[in-house]
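User: Can you model how zinc ion sits in this protein?
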Amino acid sequence: MNRSRRQFMQTGALAAGSAIALRSRRAWSLASTDLAVTPPLSVFDYAQVQLLEGHLREQFDRNHDVFLHLSEDAMLKPFRERSGMPAPGPDMGGWYDNADDFNPPENFHAFIPGHSFGQYLSGLARAYAVTGDKATQEKVHRLVRGFGETVEPSGKFYVDYHLPAYTYDKTSCGLIDAHEFAKCPDALDVHWRATKAALPFLPEKALSRAEQRARPHKMVADTWDETYTLPENFFLAYLRSGKSEYSDLAKRFIEEDYFGPLAEGHNALVGEHAYSHVNALSSAMQSYLVLGDEKYLRAATNGLRMVHEQSYATGGWGPNEAFVEPGRGLLDESLGTTHASFETPCGAYGHFKITRYLLRVTRDSRYGDSMERVLLNTIAGATPTLADGTTFYYSDYNREAVKVHYRDKWPCCSGTFPQLTADYGISSYYKSADGIYVNLFVPSRVLWSQNSTQCTLTQTTAYPRENTSTLQVGLQRPESFTVCVRIPGWSSSKNSVSVNGKAIEAAIEPGKFLAIQRSWKDGDRIELEFDMPLRLEAIDEQNKDNVALVRGPLALFAVGNIPKRITRAQLLAARVAASSSDDWKVDTDKGAMTLRPFAAIMSEQYRLYNRVNA
Ligand SMILES: [Zn+2]
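Assistant: Here's the modeled complex, given as structure tokens:
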């Protein structure tokens, strides 16, 4: 790079840095005394990490664009109608509408009116924080004002409403994000009014689904509410507003009957709704951070370990949205009985959140491995949400699988998808006291201040198609800090890491972060090369001959003609089909079989697990 070009890029980065300083100034300063536990790693502000050109950036841009152009009248319509206000504009359709024809399981129209409004608001607020786009910020402010007008003290909205906590919790998240990330001046006031209006419709404590079924109810949907996911956002509302009432509410809804057994190592997941119970682990983590009780950390750690123990090779979990009983071969059974194998945007969103919390607290790189697996094999392959609410929902791991859109418009997954894609950047890097952690290998740039020196790290990579990534340092002046790079647990002793072309001397251990401490200067380059061995992963202990072929972080799905007879040796001899191709070839007795990653699959039928004969 010539000198003037480098100087230009640096000046650009510094200008972006001052914009960040302005945008990240907080209306409520968050004193560290508010938290009982300060994790050793913190997340960057959204503006500090920019995704560069590539598939993940496209997913983010596309979601941003869809929600930026969504009709505000349509988004507000259920709230206006239920509070008796004039409600102009079109209906959104699907789950979102306010109508009286909801009749499960046949008809899910008008299932939960306005349920995902808060998530669309949250996704937009985060997208503003990433991009600084004024039109996005103004939309967030208008939506908060419009929503605020519909909140009236009697909580009319929630009268005869099937899932009040579910919708309130999402609204809560949207409003605190509008405040925190889009600097919306009235969001906290609206949040407090909305909370007081919803409270009479919430139970006295967190209720499991079994408890809800045991209580009188008008219809089955009245037993599907999710009060046990509330504490995370109540604690965040407390931290962002300073109102102790939110902390009291968070404590009131901590589901001790779930976290207690998990903390003791008992599997409390079996039979439970998968996404909401993973999401509740993030409530355990906020409880740990605010209250300091290690029981909640143990609950989250054990809970996620139990999720890992019944995950597919993609990192996805929860066939038919439920956790299975381990040790009975039920995951294998699901491959022949359901196409609803993993609730992808919601599941990946929940998975990212809990792995982000645990990574920050423990600095254990295996949580980064887990996040990466879910990223590359599930959500990266989700088809885009369309402007009419057409949404990708389930990943299908059936023996005869295809990608489809969900039956109903605007389901839950339409809400978590824009939140998750806005979170890609902040999930990729973390700040430590003496430097930076590199967690995901994605084209991106992170900008931060180290001992008052403005620093950038620019990552260039075609990972995971290629097994390399380059990190280039940008600095005003030489500065000492530590760059910790995740060395994936699936890699081998054949990895290499070099700085400015010279292999580093420290041992490179898979499954750990590698710390590179030095006095860095502008233009220094870290080059990573990971060995990505092929391996076979069995669906479960009871079915060891039913295997997925996995290369490094990437599960490979068979497409086209799949021969009846395949051997382990044949799968493990897979070779890349052509340079710059995502496809892999396996030679079998009946000719070549093609395999490809989830993100490269379009409308063709595919299969994740193949039974091997030898
Ligand atoms: Zn969903």
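A couple of observations from the model: The longest helix spans residues 3-23. The two ends are 53 Å apart (CA to CA).
User: Helpful, thanks.
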